[in-house]
Amino acid sequence: MATGGNRPAPCPLARGTAPAKIILTGEHAVVYGFAAVALPVRNLQAHASVTRAAPGYGTVLVAHDLMRSSRLRDPDPALQALATSVQQSLAKTDMDRDPDWIIQIRSQIPVARGMGSGAAVACAAVRAVAQAAQADFSDADVNTIVFQCERHLHGNPSGIDNTVIVYNRPLLFGKGQDPVFFTPRVPWTLLLADTGEPSATVAAVQAVAALRASAPGRVEAWMEEIGEISREVHTLLCQGREGRLPALLNRNQALLRRLGVSAPCNERLIQAAMDAGALAAKVTGAGLGGQVLVLAAGEDRHTLGQALDAAGAQAVRHLVL
Ligand code: MEV
User: Fold this and answer.
1) In terms of Cα–Cα distance, which of 277, 286, 119 is closest to 195?
2) What's the pLDDT score for residue 12?
3) What is the largest CA-CA distance in the chain?
4) Closest approach atom of ligand 1 to CA 31
5) DSSP label at 58?
6) Which residues approach ligand 1 with their CB closer than 6 A?
7) Is 296 helix (H, G, I), strand (E, B) or coil?
8) CB-based burial label for 11 (10 Å; 0-12, 13-18, 19+)
9) Element (H, E) at 182
10) By the 8 A CB rule, do 31 and 173 touch?
11) How far, in Å, is the centroid of ligand 1 from the Cα of 97?
12) Model pTM?
């Protein structure tokens, strides 16, 4: 649909990129206003490009990884959130609402694995559209549009995923507050082990909401502790001290377990990592599948990778932050 025949692909008018993300501490509690720490993962990127199409063609979205394409004016439901981001971007420019463009998306970020793939794809597309329209979007403009995409995908997002992805910087995040960007000074080795099970953010957030409604006092206390953990982790990272970092990550995992978002597939990898000498291991992102984050002593990286493989990890990645 996009290029046709054996003709060379046309040169893009514009391109946009955005990184993946991980949540180091504070997932779920952040939905209720408690602090969380998130980091961009720059060795996994979403890419968008805009090329000119024949006059009268209109705008076509091509999501290569999902093997779907769709007209912007009548989007495939699977591309609705992306289409909405593109429509909102166009509405902020002087372009007409259905320009003759092909917007192609390719992403290295695994889908539904707690790494912000939907937000990253939307962010890359918004940046490419702005550039193709020769419009000057600030990061705040992009963030507003990508947050709407997150609402479409996840219902009640805290805003942490879109913010860390759009600004592409480690941050301490609290809902409704300005993010605090920082540069971590701890020389750490982080691995990400994929359970192979999709993490359903909406289901996980709803399950936590139901638990909170049934035991508000207890859940509030756990979330408050998670928020304190995130603030202490932020301080340690800024000061360049590992200190209690492993203990704090492990305590966060214990509280995520109580929140009910650490599924057997997460526990299997966490146990394997800890048995093989990891300093800490926890769910990252919404949980109930998705990924497990492992903090390793540098020299243990290969042993840990092997132990995680043996425990059934679908992929083990070394994070470059
Ligand atoms: C998902 O990456 C993080 C959650 O806390 C949801 C959110 O903050 O929107 C589970």
Assistant:
1) 286
2) 84
3) 64
4) 8
5) -
6) 23, 27-28, 30-31, 114, 154, 157-158, 160-161, 201, 205, 285-286
7) strand
8) exposed
9) none
10) no
11) 32
12) 0.94
The residue assigned the tokens 């003759």 is 100
Give the burial class of 196: count Cβ atoms within 10 A of its Cβ; 0-12 exposed, 13-18 middle, 19 or more buried.
middle
CB 19 within 8 A of CB 115: no
Could you give the CA distance from residue 294 to residue 220 in angstroms, rounded to a whole number?
26
Tokens 């979403």, located at residue: 46
The DSSP secondary-structure symbol of 240 reads: T
Residues 11 and 95: their CA atoms lie apart, in Å, by 20
Helix/strand/coil for 43: strand
pLDDT digits (tens, 9 = 90+) for 45-78: 999 999 999 999 999 999 999 999 999 999 999 9
Two tokens at 70? 């769709």
Walk across the sheet containing 315-318 and list its strands. Answer: 280-284, 291-296, 189-194, 315-318
> Taking a C-beta distance cutoff of 8 angstroms, is the pair 62, 1 a contact?
yes
Phi, psi of 180 (to 5 degrees): -105, 105
- What whole-number distance in Å separates Cα of residue 198 and Cα of residue 145? 25
Residue the block writes with tokens 């180091």:
24
Give the pLDDT confidence of 22-51 residue by residue, as tens digits: 999 999 999 999 999 999 999 999 999 999
Residues of the chain where predicted confidence (pLDDT) is lower than 50: 1-5
Centre of ligand 1 to C-alpha 176, Å, is 15
